[in-house]
Design goal:
The structure is a homodimer. Chain A contains 9 helices and 7 strands; from the N terminus they run βααααβαββαβαβαβα. By secondary structure, chain A is α/β, with parallel strands linked by helices.
Chain lengths: 200, 200
């Protein structure tokens, strides 16, 4: 039996921190691992910015709640869930996902979580599992599945490598060149036509 | 972070083979592991009965498709999915689940599968993972979750034991006595009030 393991941001929904930066008009929140490769450093910076601006989790959730799936993402995802054991593995935080899940019809999302104080300020974050995306593929294989993993960026590569089939979804040109071993698709239609071959 | 791992039949939907037996008016299909404790023997018997009666997977799917969730199951499950990483671990077969999933809004169900020939006759079955329910709890723990497992019968006990919290849902009186270490609940309201304490 085949399982499908998907990345969330940029594959099914927009990048959450980019949306927050735009809506809150805080340019510093636009920084990504491209600018600050050390994820812990990046997250500390983001949380500092939130505190400096007196922003609570509820303020962020109000914005995140309104994020719409990418065009075509919902019907694509519905189709995948009808045909495969489907999970999403993401570096995002459960407190964001909690208000966003409804938009995608509550698929299973393995993600991290924030540490929030009584007033609602985010004081830290908790990585549920180191290399969580890779671990998700390992867990699915342990459970007897063959795995198709789909992602778009460098933090998905370990997951794609561990899977039986790795697919890049709309990757930057540079990545496409760097990882010729993975099929690369530019839309849901192409992706679906690949997946169709694995329906048992 | 807490994950919830649920049994499917008798917890969220009726026992599928019982429904099939009733609708097809084939008494032999009523047999369960209570009468034939060896699961492989039981399944071979069931598949023999299906072949003898010239029944194809499509005939069964027509019936399974119409199975309704137990009273209150859907709203209970929706609530669990909003608040926890939620998975279902079942001994049922993907070919049944495929037509039934919609009724429960497609939660993730780890289950087994049939071997079906070109004409649609079920020639065998494939256990995806031995002790699959126990393995699901192990996989969730590997992924960094604390686990609440919920089941109603003997084949759920290994899963309940492996979990951080094990709960029996409407178990037979005998089981309740035999496993006093597990909380026992008799409806979704009670179950929800226990789960509420674990929402982070």
């Amino acid at each position: 039996m085949w399982a499908v393991c998907l990345d969330l941001e940029s594959v099914l929904i927009p990048e959450i921190w980019q949306v927050l930066a735009k809506k809150l008009k805080i340019n510093e929140l636009k920084l990504t691992t491209r600018e600050i490769p050390d994820f812990d450093l990046l997250m500390k910076r983001r949380l500092d910015v939130l505190l400096t601006n007196n922003l609570k989790i509820q303020d962020l959730q109000k914005i995140v709640k309104k994020i719409k799936p990418l065009n075509g993402a919902l019907s694509f995802l519905n189709w995948v869930r009808e045909n495969f054991l489907t999970v999403i593995s993401s570096d995002t935080f459960f407190e964001f996902w909690k208000v966003l899940g409804k938009r995608l019809n509550y698929p299973v999302v393995f993600c991290n979580s924030f540490e929030i104080d009584k007033k609602g300020f985010i004081r830290g974050y908790k990585i549920r599992k180191k290399n969580g995306k890779l671990a998700t593929v390992k867990a699915l294989k342990f459970l007897g599945y063959k795995v198709i993993a789909i992602g778009d960026s460098y933090n998905d590569i370990a997951m794609l490598r561990a899977a039986d089939v790795g697919i890049l979804f709309k990757p930057p040109k540079k990545m496409k060149k760097e990882f010729p071993q993975f099929r690369s698709v530019s839309n849901y239609r192409e992706l679906r036509s690949i997946l169709e071959k694995y329906i048992s």
